Amino acid sequence: MAARKGFTPWPAEFADRYRKAGYWRGEVLGDLLRPWADWDADARDPGRTAVVTRHGRHTYGELDARADELAAGLVELGVRPGDAVVVQLPNTVEFVVTCVALFRAGALPVLALPAHRRAELTYLAQYVGAVALVTSDRVPGVDHRAVAQEVRAACPTLRHVLVVGEPGPFLAWSDVRAPARELSRPDPQDVAFFLLSGGTTGLPKLIPRTHDDYAFQLRATAGAMSFDHRHAYLAAVPVAHNAALGCPGVLGALRVGGRAVLSSSPSPDEAFPLMAQEGVTLTTVMPAVLSLWVETAGLFDVDLSELVIEVGGAVLHPDLARAVRPALGATLTHWFGMAEGMLCFTRPGDGDEAAATTQGTPMCADDELLVVDADGAPVPPGEVGELLVRGPCALRGYYAVPEHNRTVFTPDGFLRTGDLARIDAEGRLVISGRIKDVINRGGEKVMADEVEGHLLAHDRVRAAAVVGIPDQRLGEKTCAVVVAEDPAPSLMELRKLLWDRGLADYKLPDRLEIVEALPLTTVGKVDKRALAAAVLGDLSVIR
Questions:
Q1: Within a domain: residue 289?
Q2: Residue 52 sits in which domain range?
């Protein structure tokens, strides 16, 4: 299959270097499940468990066969190598089977989040010219079939909708199957699937991940966490996130023959019994969830002494990190992870203090970190600057946005992360803030300008700005600061407007402030720093 138009490959000299170093080994993600299903067949033991959910257990052999049938069924529907398919599924076995089937068919999953609704799904489908959408029938408060009808109406390329559960007017996921057939193997250097960026320009950019680079990520992170076929991984956050998908996550667990335990919620009521029942040895959570686990650990009679917890996605307070071992008995590893492919993290043997105060070291020796000043010059060791990254998993361009890529990548291929960082005396990364105008609400990224644009659709809103405010549980909450005509809209009125316009729930403002004017910088831009300070202090300075 020819490389998909809009994908920026690594330059040949770097690709050769990464292959010679053994990072890229020509693996393809469609081979997930297969070796362990074959091992079961050879051993006449079809019972090796691959995936556990609250609804049951599924073996490697079962999932491998179902993925083959679904891949063949998708081909019969007309899905071709290189076609994009939006996948919006919760933490279920169908998510795993769907992704593996699409890998085998050569199609490209676009991993939408469970919280996404009409606005985000339509955008993604139009962005890639998706030919199909795979979704569930409904979740509390949302009928995904109704959302899918709106998305299909807005996206002419979207020919098929597959629904897990009651399909309504669409295809039942369970009915899309055909006898397994020999399918062409994709080029390991080609795009395997798309993740979503946290982004700073409204709706997310798409991150193309190749078979080569993601297989290396699965292998390297599993090795660093000493995770193998004897172990179990708990996906307590949405598996569509890079953290739960491949650090090593669900796919990494399946690559080494381990068990992937899928939880519908990170709530201690669900997660703790699952971890005890399955002997979970590795999981990934955000700091807000970690705080809840620490607070409630005494209510559960579980032994978590073999558990390693990966934490990242938002600011981790050192005191919370230091409380993990006394409260849970578990080992903490602290991560700086980007869906764009750069991972830095502490290893289980680095010690509690390193995990409390740093994000560790890069995944491999050819991961390059630069810390630069505003002019792009490297800063002295230990000083804070913007973090730039390059490496065998770090993308060389967001999908099909050449103008944007020219602004966020240096001429020599480093990605400008927008994060403020320093490298400490031991060579470990320490993230100290960010440049980007993005709010990190419990690990979900809220792009301020996207929400602002929707707020301006209200007929009495004249100007709007959205800022992040500290929150002990979520890390940050969103505050909408609005200039409005009388009678000024209420918070509930604006939240309903954004909900009706199809925004995800986590993007709805948590707080509303009405002001007479927004503070501006000398060049006429909204002064977000002054605005955030006023929200936390004295709003009368701008009222």
A1: no
A2: 29-185
